[in-house]
Amino acid sequence: MKSTELSTISRETTNGTANSVRTASRIRIRWHELSPLNPIKLITFEQLVNLGKITAAVAATSVTRRAMVWGTPTMLMLEPTTACQLKCPHCPTGRGELARPGGRISLEKFRTLWDSIHPAPIRLQLWNQGEPLVHPDTPGIIRHATASGSRVILSTNVEALANPRTAEAIVRSGLHTLILSLDGASAESHVQYRVGGKWDRVERGVRNVAEIKRKLNRKYPVLQWQFLLFKHNLNERDDALRLAREWGANELVFKTAQLEAFEKEEGERWLPDDPKLRRYVLKDDRWVLKRAERPFCARIYGSAVVQWDGTVVPCCFDKDGEFVIGNAHDAGFPAVWQSDAYRAFRQRILTGERPPMCANCTEGLHGMYAKKERF
Fold it and tell me: Is 197 in contact with 190 (CB distance < 8 Å)?
């Protein structure tokens, strides 16, 4: 999306391209009526050069043990909103325990933030603590990032896609991959973890997207069903394979579950008995990740997380925003990325004591995915 697209869209009220209505404070755009965008397939030369800089910085850092930052992020995780209609027991938002203010980013603030990063990140991951599709301008965020040269991936609990207009807006937006977070192949199993979920809306949502892709003759977004493996849903894996084909999904991934509470009893309640189907091992009555004690953390040299209010944190495992580096809305993202505070945090992770959030981090973890099927 070009920088002038919003103003252009607001004027196109009579030709059917994007009928818009002006409210007291903003323009409401009918995203489901805009022309479809194609997702990015190849990175640009500038992005390739930037990737080389990041790779070189990681290599130099690992050798010198001094945190070096060259280039800009190749991946950005953006939190569109903290709102969600579900009450998942291992999610801070679902438990009502998110220890920071909630809200959602405006489309204008996103565009300003995104356009300050040169070259545009290769990938935008559009989720964090909340359901992205309850934000009405998520399709606009996707369109802007896609048009600037990025591949956008979004994770959803699917229910909003039961609305055909929402489903069509997502297909037309240029989204590359749509992750369907569904943890069961029946209503009874699904809602054990996705508490408050409605299975009929889930099924309708997946079918809507698949049908609109066929209607518009679109290959994207890739529909990737991510199925978290819990003790209660292991017997539904074959049913999930059948439903994935029937509904029109492109991939089915069986993924090991993440805990937020590590007591012995909590893991025994949720985790499969088979060690191959879980990412944790029990030590001294606590569940710990099956990985090296202090793996080298490469992600903080090539990626960042921006919360809905512009707060920049180094990692998605900082869910409560305890390690705030700066604010992209106030200082500008490039200044935050190169700041002394960010450099000091990287050095701490490299040579000093690591914060508690690192204990559950998947960096260096083998065994996140138990099985992947493509159709």
Answer: yes
Distance CA 270, CA 20 (A): 47
**C-alpha–C-alpha distance, residues 122 and 119, integer Å:** 8
Per-residue tokens: 238: 């074959």
195 confidence band (pLDDT: 50, 70, 90): very high
Residue 312 pairs in a beta bridge with 306, 326
Cβ burial of 9 (10 Å; 0-12, 13-18, 19+) is buried
Alpha-carbon distance 98 to 320, whole Å? 6
Query: Is 0.85 surpassed by the pTM of this model?
Result: yes
Q: What's the residue count for the chain? A: 375
Please state at what angle helix 164-172 crosses helix 138-147, rounded to 10 degrees: 10
Strands 326-327 and 311-313: antiparallel
Q: Is 256 helix (H, G, I), strand (E, B) or coil?
A: strand
Q: Which of 155, 135, 152 is nearest to 143 (CA)?
A: 152
Q: How far apart are CA 252 and CA 277, in angstroms?
A: 16
